[in-house]
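re: that complex we talked abt at group meeting.

here r the seqs, copy pasted straight from the sheet so there may be weird spacing, ignore it
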Amino acid sequence: MNIVVCVKYVPDASADRRFEADNTVDRVGVDGLLSELDEYAVEQALQLKEKLGDDTQVTVLSVGPDGAGDAIRKALQMGADKGVHVVDDAIAGSDALGTSLVLAEALKRATWDLVICGMTSTDGAMGVLPAMLGERLGVPALTFGSSLTVEGGKATIRRDGDVATETIEASLPAVVSVTDQSGEARYPSFKGIMAAKKKDVLTFSLGDLGVSADQVGLSASWTAVEGTEARPPRTAGEIVKDEDGSGAKALAEFLASKKFI
Amino acid sequence: MAEVLVLVDHVDGAVRKTTHELLTIARRLGEPSAVFIGSLSDDAAASLKSNGAEKIYTVDDADIKGFLVAPKAEVLAQLVGSASPAAVLISASVEGKEIAGRLAVKTDSGVITDAVDVQAGPVTTQSVFAGNYTVTAKVTKGTPIIAVKPNAAAPEAVEGAGAVEAVSVSVSAAAKSATVTSSEPKAASGRPELTEAATVVAGGRGTGGDFSAVEGLADSLGAAVGASRAAVDSGWYPHAFQIGQTGKVVSPQLYIAAGISGAIQHRAGMQTSKTIVAVNKDEEAPIFELVDFGVVGDLHAVLPAVTSEVNTRKG
Ligand SMILES: Cc1cc2nc3c(=O)[nH]c(=O)nc-3n(C[C@H](O)[C@H](O)[C@H](O)COP(=O)(O)OP(=O)(O)OC[C@H]3O[C@@H](n4cnc5c(N)ncnc54)[C@H](O)[C@@H]3O)c2cc1C
Ligand SMILES: Nc1ncnc2c1ncn2[C@@H]1O[C@H](COP(=O)(O)O)[C@@H](O)[C@H]1O
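got the structure back, here u go
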């Protein structure tokens, strides 16, 4: 079986993330890495490979700047077999529709039975890309799976929705996305890190995928960010130490003064 | 004035509050047209009408029941074609996002997710980077498709014409390729809906697995109960109650964090709350950077004492 895992290179969530003057995400001034939530997608692919045997190939696919190579490398260190990196200056500033177009074109040129995505990227955090891929590729999309099983040519997920927990299935080929409930992602082992050095990463430009530069990027975007504003820092509040019940009294007093009681 | 399509979110025919919020937002943008997929009861029709729906499109779901959302996206795409709406509003739920993503591709239209406000334009407001930034945005191509978060507007009671119009749509075989094979409804907690509650009391690893103090305080305040991922991962509280990056994002008037350290992923789900209170025995806990009021102490002592204070004051 052939599995493709889509991974995104994102600014480190624990760093001071910010925007550029043109309201695009600053992807240069802030350290980037493999989106934490995409590690769960890589993990599910590796678990399937372990279960289904070695003729299962796991390819990681990322659309992003040069640094996205690091995100791909991390997934290879975890155990994926090869990487595909779509990189082109014209892609910068693409929105979800633009990115999904590029990913879909890359996927149309590959052989796969299953595409696994993360639940959302940690920067854009839209969580719409997997559905867009399903639509563009004409295959079912099973999104936000808290577990994933693949058996007898079918993929099945469990989805913890607002009003119900559902079991959802579809025949392969399909796109799925998995949540952080699907199982802790492994750390690269020393052996994995060494092995990754010899794994292939193919690089494609837009031209290689038959996408023209004016279909993607900031100017072709279907949405425009008009303004970004840092939320004002919260003003320091009052902190009291509880001694023999004084904390509870003070807190009740505070709640009453704010009319919460 | 152009129509604004609102996809009705309902559970077995009962319209959810988020739909009323969407109808209120729709009136800022044009004439609200509710799209009801399923069989419309008189109660449901009345609730849509009294929240401002001028039109109610009904689509029989006999043919698409049991399939995942792709058919709903097709229904909306066909209505976008026939009604040329000024915008399409959808709840930003797991299902809503999937519909929005598919609809965007089908209609070649821009999509904005997780809007916390939508004003004429339409101009949307989103909270990004764990709530550290506020972003305003617009759709510049196609029909704006906007997935709106719960609580983005206070529903206004306005009588609309509520003209019901049955539409028949053809759903492709391809859209019926993912099936829901089982569905277990969530047990009702008897407390307010987490994302809609005015007050949320949340417990973390510091509860040690005993949520009774958290629940007791929540009940005295009429609040919803939430949990950190550490508490959820330990199996102490169901995932549906997790607050944070990979759980629910809440923005209540009052948020009380008990035994929660305040990791960035947790903050992402509660940072925009109006008033924040924390009870934590470690005075160095990062959660204290966010609070309007904090108590350094043992939650198992502080919470029950606050609960009885609240109950006494309520009289
Ligand atoms: C990809 C990813 C996604 C994540 N998503 C989320 C998410 O959506 N939501 C989320 O919450 N986390 C999320 N996390 C986890 C997050 O990083 C933290 O690990 C988690 O929030 C910690 O939970 P906690 O504060 O309950 O536990 P801890 O960090 O262990 O803090 C427990 C706190 O309780 C205090 N305490 C202990 N005993 C008592 C007592 N008796 N009385 C008072 N205080 C006491 C301690 O001082 C401490 O501050 C995510 C992590 C990752 C990697
Ligand atoms: N530029 C990208 N390259 C590869 N995969 C991506 C990219 N952007 C998003 N994805 C995938 O789509 C998922 C959802 O992303 P999003 O819709 O942006 O929240 C991510 O978890 C990734 O699996």
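couple things i noticed - The helical segments of chain B are 17-29, 42-49, 70-83, 94-107, 212-221, 229-233, 264-267, 299-314. The mean pLDDT of chain B is 95.
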